[in-house]
Specification:
The complex is a heterodimer of chains A (266) and B (106).
Chain A: H1 3-39, H2 48-73, H3 80-90, H4 93-104, H5 109-119, H6 122-134, H7 139-144, H8 151-158, H9 165-193, H10 206-215, H11 225-237, H12 245-264
Helix pairs in contact in A: 1-9, 2-4, 2-9, 2-10, 3-4, 3-9, 4-5, 6-8, 11-12
Chain B: H1 3-24, H2 32-38, H3 41-58, H4 68-83, H5 86-102
Classes of the chains: A mainly alpha (266), B mainly alpha (106).
């Protein structure tokens, strides 16, 4: 080898080693930042526990509404104990309210199961979108942890794209565990206090306000605007359709627009 | 079938929906184009959830005609845009909605 070539190769090797060292330092810094974000509560509630309590505060009013529904249908042939036992298992307010009302009106098992499947169909898409976070996780985590997959945990997790591995596991279990306990407690309180709570109208705004707070920061990305707008218009137009079909129609329309946009992207 | 058994079966259906693309069928087998579309899941579903809630009483018009819930959610959106703070946005919506209801705005 020519001496100048040898020097060049040596220099290149040094540069590669330096870059690798820089990458390792950057990676270590990134992991420390993630560790801090997922183990402590930041100044504006940016840690896992902070996220979890903020979400509990936002879904608690909706939990109270589900509890009130349990109390109301208890007089129409659906035991309150059944509604309460199902709460942490079903873990979805809209689906639970729909199922309880159908049972109270005398609907059969198939109708109830089909309605729950339609209302919760979006969970399939959430699972697919979050799958990369779960792909390298232990077997037990992949099968059991999705049990706490709901709109809020999905949105919170996707807001932390760079949290993965063990940090993601800790984040997910903290948020899911606190939210599960808070949600079940809110439903139980709602069932105990019953119809007296039904008079507190503005509390019903808590659940949609939570979705607004999760949606708005995503709209800073321009390509998100059109699919969201189309989804909203179609969902509002079909809002009175039964069994959550309005929600599905809106989401499906938004996905179609997103698919067309993504196909045109270079 | 008792109500409890039906609700437990409904919970099982929901769990299957949750794990389908996480533990049953690896999402990595999905085409790249479909995965890019899935990036829009959050915005699309959140927008549809909000609009369904608003549209129950007024259809598409409920998204533009001023009402207590619409103004309360817009206020929550403004707080979320500025602060990115979830609890502050939710509290804003409940307070603004309550005040507007007291003022008689439907």
């Amino acid at each position: 080898m020519d001496p100048r070539q040898a020097v060049a190769v040596g220099h290149l090797a040094y540069e590669v080693a330096a870059l690798r060292h820089h990458d390792l330092l950057a990676e270590a810094a990134r992991r420390r930042a993630i560790h801090r974000a997922t183990t402590r509560r930041g100044p504006r509630g940016t840690g896992a526990a902070g996220d979890a309590w903020a979400i509990v505060a936002s879904v608690a009013p909706f939990g109270l509404v589900v509890g009130v529904t349990i109390a109301l249908v208890a007089g129409r042939g659906v035991p309150a104990a059944a509604g309460l036992v199902a709460t942490p298992l079903l873990y979805g307010g809209s689906a639970q309210v729909a199922a309880l009302n159908l049972l109270a009106s005398g609907a059969g098992a198939l109708a109830v199961l089909a309605t729950v499947a339609i209302v919760n169909a979006r969970l399939i898409v959430y699972g697919a979108a979050l799958a990369p976070h779960f792909s390298d996780q232990p077997h037990w985590f992949r099968w059991l942890a999705p049990a706490v997959l709901v709109d809020q945990t999905y949105a919170a997790a996707t807001a932390r794209q760079h949290v993965d591995g063990r940090a993601f596991r800790r984040y997910w279990l903290t948020v899911g565990g606190i939210l599960g306990a808070g949600w079940t407690a809110a439903v139980a309180i709602g069932a105990a206090l019953g119809p007296a709570l039904a008079q507190l109208g503005p509390l019903r705004l808590a659940a949609p306000a939570c979705f607004v707070a999760l949606l708005v920061p995503r709209l800073r990305e321009r390509r998100a605007l059109l699919p969201a707008l189309v989804a909203a218009v179609v969902a509002a137009a079909a809002a009175s359709a039964p069994s959550g079909l309005g929600l599905l129609a809106g989401a499906a329309s938004g996905f179609v627009v997103a698919a067309v946009m993504e196909r045109r992207r270079p | 079938m008792t109500a409890l058994a039906i609700l437990v079966a409904a919970a099982a259906v929901s769990w299957l929906l949750r794990v389908l693309f996480i533990a049953v069928v690896p999402a990595s087998r999905l085409p790249a184009g479909l995965r890019r579309v899935l990036d829009h899941t959050g915005t699309v579903v959140m927008a549809a959830l909000i609009a369904t809630e608003l549209g129950h009483d007024g259809g598409v018009a409920a998204l533009v005609v001023p009402s207590g819930p619409l103004l309360a959610l817009l206020a929550a959106g403004a707080v979320a845009w500025r602060t990115r703070h979830l609890a502050a946005a939710v509290a804003t919506a409940v307070v603004v909605g309550g005040v507007l209801a007291l003022l008689g705005l439907p």
